[in-house]
Amino acid sequence: MNAGLLSAEWTKIRSVRSTVWSLVAFVVVAIGFSALIVLVINNTWNSPGNHPNHVRLLEDPTAVLFGAGFGLGQLAICVLGVIVMSSEYSTGAIRSSLLAVPTRLPMLAAKAIVFALLDLVVSAVTVFAVFFITTAIIRSHVSISLSQPGVTQACIGGILYLTVLGLFALAIGGLIRHTAGAIATVIALVLVVPPLISLIPGTIANHIHGYFPTVAGVLAGQTSQQAGDVLSPWQGFGVFCIWTAVLLAACGWLLVRRDA
Amino acid sequence: MAEAPGLIEARDLTKRFGDKVAVDHLSFDVEPGRVTGFLGPNGAGKSTTMRLITGLDRPDGGSATIGGLAYDQLAKPLTRVGALLEARSLHPGRSARNHLLFLAQTQGVPASRADEVLDLVGLREVANKRAGGFSLGMTQRLGIAAAMLGNPPVLMLDEPVNGLDPEGIRWVRTFMRQLASEGRTIFVSSHLMSEMAVTADHLVVIGRGRLIANCSTEEFIQQSSERSVFVRSPEADRLRELITGDGGAVTDEDGGLVVTGLAAPRIGELAASASVVLHELTPRLPSLEEAFMEMTADSVEYGRAEHGRAEHGRAPLGESTAS
Questions:
Q1: Which 8-state DSSP code applies to residue B130?
Q2: Is pLDDT above 70 for A84?
Q3: Residue A51 lies in domain
């Protein structure tokens, strides 16, 4: 692979509207929802009743600050990750791409690198924007700063989770090759299946749930391992990376073998 | 050993889709400096063969090389082979210029080359428009621009005149002839025999994935056994009896008779001996279309041959009705 392939993939990704719209959706939803939830917590701080979020905010602040916005906003990253790969197939552009790079794997590698870098930069900006906006909102009740234990690490973990999530979606887009099917699959894996597994009683089901790719990966955005978590934040992130690496390898293996 | 960079060699190429054999032990060479037409009925395996040569499909057997190398061994493939396969091989949301730009970047071809090929195909004015809004003709032109991007010695074009207006068709023809005269290899598929008759120097004809003919366009027409003679006479009925009596077959056409199975001199002699007046006696070579219909008759998919014959109203020898 060479610089030419990287600039080619950058040209591809910047020259279609879906990229811009997905990223705008991600940033707006992530900042908007996180700010909204923290505003609600702030405004109901002194009202009577139980406030589990208050306790959580003290024990593991980033999980609360990031939870709402990125829980929903991450779907835009999933959609973009899928589209970056599956649109090659749905539009027929894959034929042009593979005529230019007939060995195929360098094209996939360049695409993954360029998309991961873009995802990383946008996620970094968004994670810190969310952090500073939400901590400013809640400042009068709780003081949260980057220097508190685990907070900076959780911000970096959140950024890395969103980056690897994009690659996870890209790999599924390349495996399934149909945009709608791949998006449905990724959303099922991120949002639908984990709560279903957690309904199954028993420690085995608990471990399956804990090692499930996105359940493990999202731990990276926490400051510390919480009660009930099977893995620590970095262990969880490692498990998610292994899942993603396996899917990318399968994607590459099939890309080389299947007819385009 | 250095082979001509423009030589395409297919050896025993075979491709199956499930039970169906799309390309069946196909071997042929495509040589530089001429336009080689790749002819066959729809579904004969032309597009699949081109996809096999360019590595988009993996063969189940055999191999194809360009200048002695498999397509995926070419270092900068677009500078060696330009291919127009399916027209819709691009993202509809991407502009024409960006489509060419990313292709240029993969090959280390300067970005300015994108504008050059846009000029070449006459799309400069819509360079920044989204390709999804292009007509089929414009999309074909963009595909040709992409094929010319690396200024390659070999061009493979799958049905390039599809969707083009008459002016566009003329443009593609002239373009191909000019590129061939520069010494490039032009391999162009079509199911339109009439198109190939005016563009191709050489023909590779396939049916049901098998090679039917590999010869010059002239030879292809000559080889065909189907010869006929057009004859006009005020005493058509008497002439018809004479001809059928001598073993010829007759069909009516345009106020005259089309005779097969007898040569023109013999028809003249028969007429003279019976004092039948002739107004016209013209030996006819079969058109490329007829030659093609005849040669591929056994290999046409889905029994389309029968339709083809009915449409053209020219039954080959042996099936004409001697009335």
A1: B
A2: yes
A3: 3-257
CA A108 to chain centre: 19
CATH 3.40.50.300 assigned to domain B8-222? The reply is: yes
Q: Residue B132 carries which DSSP code?
A: G
Structure tokens at B187: 């391999």
Cβ-based contacts of A103 with chain B (< 8 Å)? 72
The two three-digit tokens of residue B120, written as one number: 């070449």
Q: Is the Cβ of B107 closer than 8 Å to some Cβ of chain A?
A: yes
pLDDT tens, A95-143?
999 999 999 999 999 999 999 999 999 999 999 999 999 999 999 888 9
Number of domains in chain A: 1
| Continuous H helices in chain B | 46-53, 96-107, 112-121, 136-148, 166-181, 193-199, 217-223, 236-245, 264-273, 288-296, 304-312
Answer whether A111 touches B (CB < 8 Å).
no
Extents of the domains making up chain B: 8-222, 224-312
**More confidently predicted of B59 and A63:** B59
pTM score: 0.85
Task: Give the pairing of strands B35-39 and B249-253.
Answer: unpaired
Find the mean pLDDT for residues B105-127: 96
Q: What was the pLDDT predicted at B226?
A: 60
Please list every residue in chain B whose beta carbon sits closer than 8 Å to the beta carbon of residue A2.
108
Q: How many CB contacts within 8 angstroms connect chain A with chain B?
A: 85
Q: In CATH, which superfamily holds the domain spanning B224-312?
A: YebC, transcriptional regulation domain (3.30.70.980)
- How confident is the prediction for chain B on average, in pLDDT? 87
Q: Distance between CA atoms of A92 and A90, rounded to whole angstroms?
A: 6
Q: How many whole angstroms from its chain centre is CA A50? A: 31
The answer to whether B162 and B136 have CB atoms below 8 angstroms apart is yes
Mean local confidence (pLDDT), B105-115:
97
As a three-state string, the secondary structure of B277-302 is CCCEEEEECCCHHHHHHHHHHHHCHH
Higher pLDDT, B294 or B176: B176
Return the closest-CA partner of residue B251 out of B280, B268, B234, B231: B231
